[in-house]
Amino acid sequence: MDISVILPILNERENLAQLIAEIERALDPTHKSYEIIAVDDGSDDGSTQLLRELQGTHPSLRLIVFRQNYGQSAAFDAGFRNATGEIVVTLDADLQNDPADMPAMIQLLEDEQYDFVAGRRAERQDGFLLRRAPSHIANYLIRKVTRTRLHDLGCSLKVYRREAIEHLHLYGEMHRFIGVLVESMGARTTEMSVHHRPRSRGQSKYGIMRTFKVILDLLTVWFMQGYQTKPIYLFGGCGLLLGFLSCILSVFVLFQKFFRGVWVHRNPLFILSMIFGVMAVQFLCLGLLAEILVRTYFESQHKTSYLIGERLGWEREASAPKVAIASWVKHGVQSEPTARRAGKVT
After folding, report:
1. What pLDDT digit, counting tens, does each position of 210-224 carry?
2. Which of 82, 292, 336, 343 makes the best surface tag, with the fewest CB within 10 Å?
3. Tell me: the pLDDT tens digits for 25-44?
4. What is the domain partition of the chain in residue ranges?
């Protein structure tokens, strides 16, 4: 399959038929094979039944139905895991993303050898107070903390090469940070201005409370981006700083005791130095435990702490004739063929 289009769906029955038709009109002229993967995230408005009916007239449509609502990140992740296309496209199912932008984004991905093309909504057709203002604040915070070059991280219209998402796993509400996560894996990324249309049917699933969730998820992304494989640097650094402050305060308390006659039980700095000392030990221990957890995670999952972008030279070894090795067991034990001829192996 050339292209996989992933649609996370939650109560969008009124938009589905038009959306599927627009996707097909956009991709048919490209003469590429494609599939449309609709991920129903626990809809209760009849979206699932309509999608089953649409499958009869749209052979390219695939359907994944969640048992309950798990969130947009889970829907994207399920789509990524089931996609078979070399190029993967994501967009919202509310018709605000224009499917007509997909061919140009795919062309940009192929011509310029990018791994990831993110849509940037040039003229957003949403309300300012509840949608655009929180989005601008969230995007600003994300850019400052993660130093990403992307500006509109909330736009779901994105195009990926398959290699860019193979090692990507989404949890919680992490779909907003897909661009940041892909960048952190070394993918070549760019942005492209796309159309944005007003919502004509259905109700928006976004609100002002989503901004607070973004802030909490941002802390997770910041930690994973900088300290996922070396948490001791963060926790140990905090522990050393607190330990240094504890020592400085202790010295100052002793100075006040012997040269100014300030008794310890009347000096709050003594209590503060003890608190800092205890916290320093706790942070150092937490850093060591985090290091053990990180190593356990990577080894138990058979994962590496790095990603290889390219391998060269193995093709010659793979095509060369293999030479049989005489001994298959070390320390003088006979090889399997020899043992069989001698009747020692049944």
Report:
1. 667 777 888 888 888
2. 343
3. 999 999 999 999 999 999 99
4. 3-226, 231-300
